Amino acid sequence: MKVFRTVLLYLVAIIAVIRGLTAIFGGSDFGTKLEFNKAELYYTKSVTADEAKRLGGYCIKEELFSNNKLSTQIDKNNGTYQFRMVLKKGSENDAALLQSAKLLADGMSREVFNGAKVEFYACDDGLKPVKLMASS
Predict the structure, then answer these.
(1) What gap in Å lies between CA 50 and CA 47, rounded to an integer?
(2) Of 120, 80, 75, 81, which is closest to residue 99 (Cα–Cα)?
(3) Which pLDDT belongs to residue 67?
(4) Residue 37, beta-bridge partner list
(5) How many C-beta atoms lie closer than 10 Å to residue 132's C-beta?
(6) pTM, rounded to two decimals
(7) What CA–CA distances, in Å, run from 102 to 12, 37, 56, 115, 136?
């Protein structure tokens, strides 16, 4: 019985280490990653690869994906596309940025997603929404 308990404790410890390493080295499932210039665009299983590529092309055209490092994600929930972008803390309240987010959400809806609703979220480094900045 003591051997079984010792083996079980070792297995639990190994699983904990593996989970920790997975979290540290990219275990967060942001989706499939595409790169456009220096920008990262992750897309979830609810978005097609073609939609993600069209979005990347649109973001290049609008100079959102230029030579700056940027992390973004596109998801879809109940027919609404959710575009998430990592922003510096506090910038989600900047008036000019809010206006740009609205223009981008409207353009994404019109030019990429055939008129479907698009929500634009400011996110933290883990791509967790901090604020809904705009909606088409």
Answers:
(1) 8
(2) 120
(3) 83
(4) none
(5) 14
(6) 0.77
(7) 48, 23, 17, 14, 7
